[in-house]
Amino acid sequence: MVVAEEGEEREEQEERAGVEDWKTREQLEKEGLLRTPVERAVFAVQESYAASWPPRDVVDAFELMLDAGKADLFLVMEPGELRDLWLKKQLRQMHRATGKH
């Protein structure tokens, strides 16, 4: 399915190009968003990984953050290698459990 793959590649490029257009943390807070740990964790994932990870992985990380316990843990971790390793491990476990990738 080369056509489907080409379409996916274009879609990924367009999604990455739009990163600069996202609202800032301050704008979202003024709008009453980012109140819950899940909302803050999803935003932190977007800030930290959207520009460098494939969009599918970022979306899977969003899904992972729907677990409030994992969202809380993610938020207390300092950005860096340990948090990155933890998140990648969680994503691998999620993919194994759901049969993805």
SSE inventory with pairings:
Elements: H1 2-17, H2 25-30, H3 37-49, H4 55-64, H5 68-76, H6 81-98
Q: Tell me how many strands there are.
A: 0
Q: What's the overall average pLDDT, rounded?
A: 83
Main sheet overview: none
Secondary-structure element sequence?
HHHHHH
- Indicate the proportion of strand residues: under 5%
Q: Residue share in helices?
A: over 70%
Backbone CA Rg = 15 Å
Helix-strand category = mainly alpha
* End-to-end distance: 17 Å
How does the overall form come out from the CA principal axes? globular
Q: What number of domains?
A: 1
How many helices does DSSP assign?
6
Low-confidence stretches: none
Region (Disordered): 1-21
Biased composition (Acidic residues): 1-12
Give an overview in words.
The protein is mainly alpha-helical. The chain has one domain. It is 71% helix and 0% strand. The chain has six helices and no strands. Helix 3 packs across helix 5 and helix 4 crosses helix 6. The two termini are 17 Å apart. 14% of the residues are buried.
Primary descriptors:
101 residues; mainly alpha; 6 helices
In short:
This protein has helices at 2-17, 25-30, 37-49, 55-64, 68-76, 81-98. It is 71% helix and 0% strand.
